Amino acid sequence: MNPLGEKYLRKNFLPFIFCPGCGDGMIVQAFLEAVDELGIIDDLALAAGIGCSAWIPVYMHADVLKVLHGRAIPAAIGLKATRPSRKVVVFTGDGDGLAIGGLHLLHAARRNIEMGVVLVNNQIYAMTGGQVAPSTQVGARTQTTPYGNLEKPLDGVKVAVAAGATFVSRGSTSHPQALSRTFKKMLTHKGFSFVEIISQCPVQTGRYILGSGAPQFNLQWLKDNCVPVDGPAKWAEVEAQGKIPLGDVLQIEKPEYMEEVQKMNRQVKEARSKGGDR
Amino acid sequence: MKKGRIKVMQGNEACVEAALLAGCRFFAGYPITPASEILEGMARRLPLVDGFCLQAEDEIAAIVAAVGASWGGAKAMTATSGPGFCLMQEGIGLAASVESPCVVVNVQRGGPASGQSTSTAQGDLYQARYGSNGDYSLITLCPSTSQEMFDHTIRAFNLAERFRIPVIILSDEVVAHIREKVVIPDVSELEFVERKKPTVPMEKFVPFEAGEDDVPPMPAFNTGYKIPVISQAKSLSGNRGNAKEAEAFIYRINRKVEAHIAEFADIRTYGDEKAETAFVSFGSVSRSARSAVDMAREKGLALRSVEVKTIWPFPDDLLRERLEGAKRVVVAEMNLGMLRNEVQRVICSPGVKIELFSKIGGIYPLPQEFLRFLEEKR
């Protein structure tokens, strides 16, 4: 076994639930590389909802809370608020995080609460059998768009920026080393981080949208379509070519929510002890 | 007579006071009439005790955040009313499935849907018990006064910690907003229960293995146990269970509550315990039932008021005891007969006549109406 797996995987939970050729295993590895380098496994509190990507943290030997479809972020807030020193990370998917749980993403980003949200985008509802997702491209035929998808996809990266996230990045399983570096940035960022990972699903997206269920075909499709760019300025240019830009979009500092809460609590208590108004 | 600090409080305020005393340090809620004073009170008070109050984006986030906080190691609570209680149902099932102690207050108002936001009702009785999918069990308490709201809130936290379950406090608009005397006992006189924590080292810890009482020890996150907690039906190790493991898990989370009902079942009788005519009620309606007993006594008529305080799991045996010798049972409630159905299920003796006094529409029933009912339907 990979030494990282030996060190950090919950071996009695193996084999993985993931299909052959799935990108989720690569994300497990990239994330564990970052965790290992930072030495923070004991501080991790991982949360997830429902879907393929929600199983990513379950195999890691850490504290993991896997809740309802779309609701990982509220669970993560409960964990963060009860001990702000925790390194809280949410693993979600495009359906879990942008459809049923979309509202929670907006509000967690708005609060700039320190946590990482890793949104694995495979452009489809994979676990339920290949239905259209909010990230599916226009025209795609899925189990629920048998005549083609009419709806424009939602760009999670743009949503996160608009909502107030302070670290926003996009990676892909086609570029796994960069992924590990991105996770390190996320895990050391003071504020709300949103990391989208474009990933392959040979079984659903591959077979029904891209035209082949072969894992190497799907990974090659990602390599051909995902373009690392240096800074957000080139972002639109790549998008205009119909490709998917990768890289950091935003990394800024803003007051972090739990720190502000603690500051306020101190002030309120001080004012009270001096006999001031509540 | 209870001793302690005396305050005049609304039921909602008494709930806040008691929750803080019980050690609640995390609250999440969404504004909704007639429950908002609980969220407001928590927002004001929790910062003073290093707690945290979240006004969530919706009730789904509120209940799930409470579950997260519970695993974070805190005593957690949320409060809502009917429409929000609907949204919370999946989360209540989650709390039951991942065995997270937490307290959920539902201040009932008229329904269905938006119903009557400022009027009282008791139409959520079944929802409190059966609102989420699948087989699970939880405890539901029904206060009728501000004092009971205080006492039941402390009890709710204790029962949640004892059994690792969500405990529902089924209040209603009358209890929420009435202002009356509450005796707040000294902390030294109160009893607080804390969840059982694992005592074995991490290598020997089996996440969902329970002892004789069917309640597994619960470690907080980041205390070294590295526990996998999933919302699926699980094996003892916490992974997805096979058919046999799922079956054992579902039996256990039901049995851990149902088999211990004698430990917490509570039904109070007011008035003449031997009277042939008995009212059965829960929540605020019990107030009018008590007054009706007093008014009848003045006329030389003996009545008993049987008041169900722990309504779920339904206390079958205790109700049979409390209704012993009764020939005429009038179930009084502000819905179309939910409690009546339970009473009928439990009391199926041919010598007992069970009648329903039902009042809906949001106007609280007066004791005189009960007495009139007894005379007219005789």
Describe this structure in words.
- The complex is a heterodimer of chains A (278) and B (378).
- The model of chain A has no long low-confidence stretch (mean pLDDT 96).
- Helices cover 41% and strands 17% of the residues of chain A.
- The longest helix of chain A is centred in the last third of the chain and has 17 residues, at 257-273.
- Chain A has one domain (3-273): Rossmann fold.
- Chain A is built from 11 helices and 8 strands.
- In chain A, helix 2 packs across helix 7 and helix 4 (94-100) packs across helix 5 (102-111).
- Chain A has an 8-stranded mixed β-sheet with strand order 2-1-3-4-6-5-8-7, with helices on both faces.
- With 278 residues, chain A is an alpha/beta fold.
- Chain A is globular.
- Chain B has helices at residues 11-22, 36-45, 59-72, 82-97, 125-130, 146-163, 173-177, 243-258, 261-264, 285-298, 316-322, 338-346, 367-376, and strands at 5-10, 24-29, 52-55, 75-80, 102-108, 139-141, 166-172, 179-184, 228-230, 267-271, 277-282, 304-308, 310-312, 328-333, 353-358.
- Chain B is an alpha/beta fold and 378 residues long.
- The two termini of chain B are 38 Å apart.
- The longest helix of chain B has 18 residues, at 146-163.
- In chain B, the strands form 3 sheets. In chain B, strands 3-2-4-5-7-6-13 form a 7-stranded mixed β-sheet, sandwiched between helices.
- In chain B, helix 12 (338-346) links the parallel strand 14 and strand 15 (353-358).
- The chains are: A alpha/beta (278), B alpha/beta (378).
- The A-B interface holds A 10, 12-13, 42-45, 47, 50, 58, 61-68, 71, 73-83, 86, 103-104, 106-107, 261, 264-265, 268-269, 272, 278 and B 25-26, 28, 44, 47-48, 50, 52, 54, 56-58, 60-62, 64-74, 76, 90-91, 94, 98, 221-222, 224-232, 237, 239.
